[in-house]
Amino acid sequence: MLAVRVVQDHGVYVEGLNFFTGFCVEGHTHAIRKKDKAKPQRNNTLWVAERLGIKLHFMDVVDDYRDIVLNPRYGYGANLNPCLDCKIFMVERALRWMNAHGFDFLITGEVLGQRPKSQRKDTLPIVQRDSGADDLLLRPLCAKHLPPTLPEREGWVDRQRMLDFSGRGRKPQIALAREYGFEDYAQPAGGCCFLTDPQYAEKLTDLWNSRGDRSYDLDDIMLLKVGRHIRPCPNFKVIIAREEGEGRYLQGYRKGYVSITTLSHGGPDALIDGAPTDEDIELAARLVARYGQGRNCSSVRVQIRSPSGSTRELDVLPMRPHEIPESWTLSKR
Ligand code: SF4
Q1: 90 alpha carbon to ligand 1 midpoint, in Å?
Q2: 114 CB under 6 A from ligand 1?
Q3: Cβ(127) – ligand 1 distance below 6 Å
Q4: Hey, which of 19, 80, 87, 204 would you mutate to test ligand 1's pocket, going by the most ligand atoms within 8 Å of its Cβ?
Q5: CA of residue 313 to ligand 1 center, whole Å
Q6: What pLDDT is attached to residue 115?
Q7: What is the mean pLDDT of residues 218-244?
Q8: pLDDT tens-digit profile of 122-133?
Q9: For residue 32, what pLDDT band results from cuts at 50, 70 and 90?
């Protein structure tokens, strides 16, 4: 918001680009989980574009982004986040879009030293070089720390009015936001995608290990954001909703997975991912019963539904806590 407003103040016409990689945090989990209902159920990018009065273009890059996640030239950050490669990829895509649509230069909201991998003094130029954007990429919030770009040299924007923010603190940004009258904005914390989340990275690594290859599709990565993931055996895992909103979300995947619903007691919806045997399905049903209201009963009736829609019922003994080794649980929250 700040970077756009700084260049808009020069009379520059701006449009926005938003990249959908499938790993984005925004607009997904908040929309699913009831627990997060106090958070605004808005798409922050759309909301920001509306506040700024700019046109916004969504770019679905799920397929092309896969290679960035799987083979990052510059490696990963603390988890599975290929931040430097990701920035290069997005700026390169933005450059293509810019050229195709007759725009003159690119801006980002990057701040020198704000992120440990992709926003360092030595890595900001790599993004410019490897994306091909070179001096067409202006970072208005920290431009004074960086060599002048073409828009500054040509006087399209005034370098003196660019900013010199640096470091991880956000005080100057918050002060500038206040000056611009921005009272509400996305909280500036953590990474912008799930690849920076250690538990998510653990689940994605487990998925790859279980399949014996590092592939994924959109449903895989969306499901990793939802529910409790428990893997009793290498050939299957159980995804158990932690709340009603997640349960409804998992129901949407019934045609792709064996699903389990508790009938005799209140209980969570669940999916089985993998190739479970009948014995595995029974074990999964006992596990699901463990998380329902019948957890202390001697028998819980569950419905097993195949992806084709055929159903059968099973009476199972809910699993006792001591029967569930900690190593089965891939996500504890
Ligand atoms: S945190 Fe941001 S820069 Fe890093 S990989 Fe995710 S989307 Fe890309």
Answers
A1: 10
A2: no
A3: no
A4: 87
A5: 44
A6: 80
A7: 94
A8: 899 999 999 999
A9: confident
Answer yes or no: is pLDDT of 74 > 80: yes
Rounded to 5°, angle at Cα 102 from 99 and 104: 80
Ligand 1 atom index nearest CA of 19: 7
* Ligand 1 atom at minimal distance to the Cα of residue 83: 4
For the CA of 86, the closest atom of ligand 1 is 8
User: pLDDT-based confidence at 189, cuts 50/70/90?
Assistant: low
